[in-house]
Amino acid sequence: MPKIKPPVKTPRIDMTPMVDLFSLLLIFFVLTASFRPQEVAKIDSPASISEKQAPDFNLMTIFISQDGKVFFNIDNGRDTSTHFRAQILKKMAERYNLTFTETEYDLFGRLSAFGMPLKDLKQWIDVKESKERDKMQVGMPMDSTDNQLGYWILYSRIVNPQAEVAIKGDGETNYMLVKKVMDLLQENKVNKFNLITNMQKEEIGMKDLPPEK
Amino acid sequence: MAQIESQDQGGKKGGKKRAKKHSTGIDMTPMVDLMCLLITFFMLTTAFAKPKVMVITMPEKDKNQDQKEQPKISKERTLNILLSGNDEVYYYKGLVAPGSPMPQLIKSDFSKDGIRKMLLDRNRDLFTKITEYRDKRLTGEIIVADTTYDETVKQMKLDDKKGPIVLIKADTSAMYRDIVNIIDEMAICDIASYAVVDIGQVEDMMIQAYRAGTQLTEYPKIQVKEK
Lengths: 213, 227
Prior knowledge:
The complex is a heterodimer.
Chain A: H1 16-32, E1 47-48, E2 52-53, E3 59-64, E4 70-74, H2 84-95, H3 102-110, H4 118-126, H5 130-135, H6 148-159, E5 164-169, H7 175-187, E6 192-199
Parallel strand pairs in A: 1-6, 3-5, 5-6
Antiparallel strand pairs in A: 3-4
Helix pairs in contact in A: 2-3, 2-6
Chain B: H1 29-45, E1 52-57, H2 63-69, E2 78-84, E3 88-93, E4 104-108, H3 115-122, H4 124-139, H5 146-159, E5 165-170, H6 176-188, E6 193-197, H7 201-212, E7 223-224
Parallel strand pairs in B: 2-5, 4-7, 5-6
Antiparallel strand pairs in B: 2-3, 3-4
């Protein structure tokens, strides 16, 4: 008796619903994505219970790394057509008698945090590779002989007076350095600081109250 | 894969030649693969949680104003917290002034039974008031909007007349972390008024004397409590 071979059926799964779902997810992520900004240095900020969120724009951020380097960042404001960054750089260039080309101003507007003497900034803008760029981040000079950070803050305040100030410092940084930055900001009439922290919940209630003596 | 063409089978045996039937289905697998990759990429690069910030307002730097405001702080309510290296925390009550007796410097730490216990003990009234209000809101006893809640707590803090006025002073060896921790402690304990101010020379000497285990220094007579 000859064997009857059952016809070999290839299993087939309908992929269409899966594709539908993935499309939806993809669209969601594309629309909600706000890209994680590139970190200028590894900064491990301390924890606090604060739940207040940092503003999305009009934010001047000063980064202080563990090894005492200071970096500066400011955004272009709510409307990108304001070109705050380019305006600030123009004022800085005027002050230090340096010239930047229009393309460099434009490119600078799209970059983020930086920390180097102004004379090296041109090179930093022109470098194409991001690794090369990172190597040039040596920290912003802020001593009394050449207080570039002070000028950056000053011109940022002039160009965008609404900008709030955020400080992102490493927990291991000496407080004196942070204080120096804060003093510099206070000289420019900034008295309110947003210290960027990691959120850490802390439960506290009546039971924590020590008994009355 | 999900769909494998199976037209080869049995195709050669038959005498009649038939036009091959093409399936109308499109193989979706590569599309799914691509989408998986894209979704993974977006998920990893998206920053969902915005950074959290702790707001701190520093006293304005105006020397004339400083002198005017200093007498306003009542001596009984003043509590000084000194921060130093290695996460050391010291505190003393009152003020150091040339004429008056020197306050006692006490060492504490950032643990739950350390500085927090002391702060809670001194801020008992306000803390009880705010915590009761908060608990009532959590259990649903009272229903208020976020803004009303914040306003009420703010008003409670403004009305407070018993809680300590904390002056936070950090010396040159203190870490940024210490300052953030202590300000956070202020928020946890609902301290109504606190300020970060510069450390005085006398206070530096007080810490040094404490570390050395000595009792006295030259000008300010510092009493050091031994633990």
